[in-house]
Write a structure and sequence with these properties.
CATH class of the largest domain: Mainly Alpha
Structural class: alpha/beta
Strand order of the largest sheet: 1-8-5-4-2-3
Bound molecules: nicotinamide-adenine-dinucleotide
Strand content: 5-15%
Helix content: 40-55%
Radius of gyration: 20 Å
CATH topology of the largest domain: Dehydroquinate synthase-like, alpha domain
Number of strands: 8
Length: 351
């Protein structure tokens, strides 16, 4: 018998195809009438189209979301929300857009409806990472947890294959680390395993045919579950390394996750044989670390940090930053093995 503690998070999820048609009803259900729609600059047209369809329920569009949620952008967005008298936020996009919505909610308490278009999973978490003066700090507060999430598989059909793969592997990393989390519990572990199975059956199918609605549906389902894991339990070495690498060398978020994951799994494998068997079973492989490394290659994603712009001279700095403050991980964090992990990940060697 295992003892555990489980904290449930509130939230409403609508999942399906064409779910965005229910946005107006969801805004009214929150007793709101003026939604500020958020997007990245690239998706301004889509956000304007959404606003047009909402008619008077749309207060306006703010299409300036960028990666890593810079505080100046969030403060500008808050001013826009206030000047338009917005009474809720609708964030359409990936983790960058969701992050902006959370940053506005943190400062205004406005309710959020998120329509995710990647597999990053931020919509299911009470976590916000913000960047100020080049430093990214992360906080956990229920103030940023979205009230409603509308998963519409149709909005993911145009997600480029390369982004789909790395974003999917980013989600896989949430599920993997949930399985060996300090706060692991039977419910979250079931969710994590189901998430891994959903990605195991969908990622190659998406690469073969990006418009495959069934594969897209499975990946989005996996993303919901992985995001739920990320919101429910604390993460470990893998997320710490990605945070350090992304923040220090400005590396792309999802690609960095895809590169590090097999190495983080290999690092923890000796201490977590049961978890390793679960990951291996989900992906139909003997060795979970090598299996994920091979899968990453077959899916066409980059496997070395040098390919995404990390300088070799940065390895020592990353070792220092990843080992200086203690944090939970199944296996002790030690500079020697972490240096070896990073050296392999930098070169693109197998784990
Ligand atoms: P992103 O939101 O930056 O999107 C990646 C790229 O995909 C962008 O160029 C975007 O324009 C494009 N895109 C998104 N949806 C598309 C679609 N349907 N069709 C075509 N193109 C589309 O990246 P992301 O990986 O989703 O999110 C990364 C950010 O989210 C990071 O800042 C990360 O720290 C944060 N994040 C936070 C949490 C959390 O719990 N707080 C969880 C995961 C990620």
């Amino acid at each position: 018998m295992n003892s555990f503690t489980y904290d449930a998070l509130p939230g409403r999820v609508l999942f399906g195809a064409g779910t965005r048609e229910r946005l107006a009803d969801e805004i009214k259900r929150l007793n709101c009438a003026h939604a500020l729609i958020l997007a990245t600059p690239r998706h301004e047209t889509a956000a304007n189209e959404l606003a047009r369809r909402l008619g008077p329920l749309a207060a306006g569009v703010f299409a300036e979301a960028v990666m890593h949620t810079p505080v100046p952008v969030s403060e500008r967005a808050v001013k826009v929300a206030q000047s338009l008298r917005a009474d809720c936020i609708v964030a359409v996009g990936g983790g960058s857009t969701t992050g902006l919505g959370k940053a506005i909610a943190l400062r205004t308490d406005l309710p959020q409806i998120v329509i995710p278009t990647t597999y990053a999973g931020s919509e299911m978490t009470p976590i916000l990472g913000e960047t100020a003066d080049g430093v990214k700090t992360t906080q956990r507060t229920l103030k940023v947890l979205p009230e409603v999430v509308l998963y519409d598989v149709e909005l993911t059909l145009a997600l480029p294959v390369a982004v789909s793969v790395t974003s999917g592997l980013n989600a896989v990393a949430h599920a993997v680390e949930a399985l060996y989390a300090k706060e692991r519990n039977p419910l979250v572990s079931l969710i994590a395993e189901e998430s891994l199975r959903a990605f195991a059956r969908s990622l190659a199918a998406i690469v073969a045919n990006p418009k495959d609605v069934n594969a897209r549906g499975a990946a989005l389902y996996g993303a919901w579950l992985a995001g739920t894991c990320l919101g429910a339990v604390g993460m470990a070495l893998h997320h710490k390394l990605c945070h350090v690498l992304g923040g220090t060398f400005d590396l792309p978020h999802a690609e960095t996750h895809a590169i590090i994951l097999p190495h983080a799994i290999a690092y923890n494998a000796p201490l977590e044989p049961v978890v390793m068997r679960k990951i291996a079973e989900a992906f139909g492989t003997e060795d979970p670390a090598v299996g994920l490394y091979d899968l990453t290659g077959r899916l066409g994603a980059k496997r070395s940090l040098k390919e995404v712009g990390m300088p070799e001279a940065g390895i020592e700095r990353a070792v220092m930053l990843a080992t200086q403050n203690p944090y939970w991980n199944p296996r002790k964090i030690e500079p020697g093995p972490i240096r070896e992990l990073l050296r392999r990940a930098w070169s693109g060697d197998p784990p």
